[in-house]
Description:
Layout: H1 3-8, H2 19-30, H3 45-55, E1 56-57, H4 71-86, E2 100-104, H5 111-122, E3 125-129, H6 131-134, H7 141-155, E4 159-164, H8 179-195, E5 203-209, H9 217-222, E6 225-228, H10 234-245, E7 250-251, H11 254-263, H12 269-280, H13 282-285, H14 289-292, E8 303-304, H15 305-311, H16 321-334
Parallel strand pairs: 2-5, 2-6, 3-4, 4-5, 7-8
Antiparallel strand pairs: 1-3
Helix pairs in contact: 3-7, 4-5, 7-8, 10-11, 10-12, 12-15
Amino acid sequence: xxxxxxxxxxxxxxxxxxxxxxxxxxxxxxxxxxxxxxxxxxxxxxxxxxxxxxxxxxxxxxxxxxxxxxxxxxxxxxxxxxxxxxxxxxxxxxxxxxxxxxxxxxxxxxxxxxxxxxxxxxxxxxxxxxxxxxxxxxxxxxxxxxxxxxxxxxxxxxxxxxxxxxxxxxxxxxxxxxxxxxxxxxxxxxxxxxxxxxxxxxxxxxxxxxxxxxxxxxxxxxxxxxxxxxxxxxxxxxxxxxxxxxxxxxxxxxxxxxxxxxxxxxxxxxxxxxxxxxxxxxxxxxxxxxxxxxxxxxxxxxxxxxxxxxxxxxxxxxxxxxxxxxxxxxxxxxxxx
Length: 337
């Protein structure tokens, strides 16, 4: 039986343990071949189960509107994934979408949310991959898991394979590197190239990192689009603050809101969320323990500018200026400007 015939049986994913494939492997075993885990061209059903249960994200319910700003990154993802899934007849030949995208920038600014949004908007299968999900204590199993991952992605296309903190998985290879780590990196690179063997397959690999300078050169060659996700500018900070305060009782006249936008320069999206959460605690802290137990939520005073000013003494920007400048420089040299 050819390997293509075996792979075709996996179209029953997800759900069962691909009993057809298991039956074929049992037949080969009874004929004196190697166990199913070692049969060339076949896949271990246990690894398939690991992929479908631990790596496939079944609820990336994030929409474009949930991601503030980042218009350039949204446009790139629209061209790479969403439009090709809806109009495959248009995106062929020179217009076929790139298969690799790198989202890089300071942490906490929406890289993961963007990847989940594109999976939701395109109705694609979303594979959320980390270094820990692809490593194993058994020699050689990590490489098999990588092969299985890409095989399942092809069978469930359109698919998005999202590798968060990709630098921890595909950093620059060095001479004294651990042999298992080197083999894993090589297998990911080989499988990445294999995705493009069938030009009609729609499997997109998206990597996210805040340390792009540590990625291997071979990885950068495959991630042809590299989009910088910067710290939010004034207009995006204004949107983020309004989004965080939605549903809250607050008193921030226009001038106070604009002051807050100016004074939070250098804050990431996650920093702004933490700032709002800290400010929201200020009215409660003023009450004292006895009053906290008896007061009604509607009786709490409104948030005001002074609450955010006090919160800034506790919640400070998480990114050093030197790191920010380093990412800006890398973007000028290697980013898709």
